[in-house]
Amino acid sequence: MKSSPSESERFFYHSFPRRARSDEERALIAGPKILAAIRDLGILLTPETNEWKELLGVDGNLSKSMMIGQVRCCFTELMPEELPKHAEDFGQFSVEFDVCTLRQLGCLPACYLPKPKEQGAGLEHIGSMLVVRLGEIQGLLELMTELTELVATAQDKSQILVHGENPIQCTCAGVEDLFQLLTRRSQSTRVLSRAIAGLSGLISPADDFEHKGPHGGLLSYYRQREWRIVAGIEKNGVAIHRELEPDEKDRLLQIDPEFFGKEHEFRGGNDRQIDRCRVFSEYLGKSIMRYARRVIVPERVLDQARDILSDDDDPEVVTIESLRNTPGCALGPKRLPAGARRKGRRNG
To answer: How many Å apart are CA 218 and CA 207, to the nearest integer?
Structure first.
């Protein structure tokens, strides 16, 4: 049995369902379905695009938009007694992780940069400039990767390389020699491109000027203490996060067709949200859910959640009401003895 957290302990929380937070009945239906999906599939990394512009010249004009794509899962660092307030905005269901455990799973702190509202904001635009440069570097590396793959498949290395409809005044062999020279002291352009994409996935605006009230305004995102697991990272040449199988996509589309079925413009073309999602299923042969410390749910679905997480190795389940009602600590219902826990079916 894991000990109850003390007042000074802090943990990482992934909360859901955020989209249904204002509709309690809808959240109580969606929450257990999402919890079961995390148990069976793993942690879902979802896509989002952020628009950034940089200041051009002394006249205050802004550049064209640079859309930075991200595929990530977000966590917030909190004391347990802070979770109920956090849940009002992010959802009444949460998966709790020890700090060291989540860091071992590759979670990294978000990088907060200011995105000025006004054109004449002076040096505040330095952050936006850095993001735009990062996007340009990623685009350059992606183009180099495409050219590398074209050269690798060319049967006649003496022919002029053509990219799209544009002939490049260099032979395939010449391009191949050039790229080998450029990358002789680094990883391949494909690996470099994925690393830049992963770094881009950590970037967040520091401020939320779109929403008014206590949760919007200056430095509002910065104060959230967000950490992220970002997609596209490889270890020893092997991808850590995988694509969803067709039946897994169907399952998530049934939970939230509006969100997962919506089309967005991403780098490389339009796609449905679900097609850009990735999932972190296991690490070192152990499902990600079993790295969790506890799962926190509304009291009304406590039994349902315990049925979902009924195996001996599953995390304990406590109620969010117990965190609200116990001043200064987060003592919840005790974990059931192994012999008394309900046995449930699990996929995979």
So the answer is: 5
- Tokens encoding 174: 């010449």
Residue linked to tokens 């051009």: 56
Who contacts 150 (Cβ-Cβ below 8 Å, separation ≥6)?
Answer: 161, 163, 172
Give DSSP secondary structure letters for 263-294. EEEETTEEEEHHHH-EEE-EETTEEGGGG-SE
Least confident stretch, 207-221, 235-249, 265-279, 309-323: 207-221
Q: 3 phi and psi, to 5 degrees?
A: -70, 155
Q: How far apart are the first and last CA of the chain?
A: 25
Average the pLDDT over each of 55-64, 201-210, 221-230, 259-268 and give the range with the smallest value: 55-64
For the entire predicted model, the pTM comes to 0.86
User: Rounded to an integer, what distance in angstroms lies between the CA atom of residue 41 and that of residue 260?
Assistant: 16
Q: How far is CA 44 from CA 6, 37, 243, 278, in A?
A: 30, 9, 10, 6
More confident residue, 131 or 341: 131
Where do the structural domains in the chain lie, given as residue ranges? Answer: 11-340
- Helix residue ranges, H only, the chain: 24-41, 83-90, 99-104, 126-153, 172-182, 189-200, 246-255, 257-260, 273-276, 302-308, 320-325
CB 308 within 8 A of CB 36: yes
3-state secondary structure of 76: strand
**Residue 102 and residue 306: Cα distance in Å, rounded?**
23
Tell me what pLDDT residue 120 has: 61
What sign does the dihedral 27-296-312-288 (CA atoms) show? positive
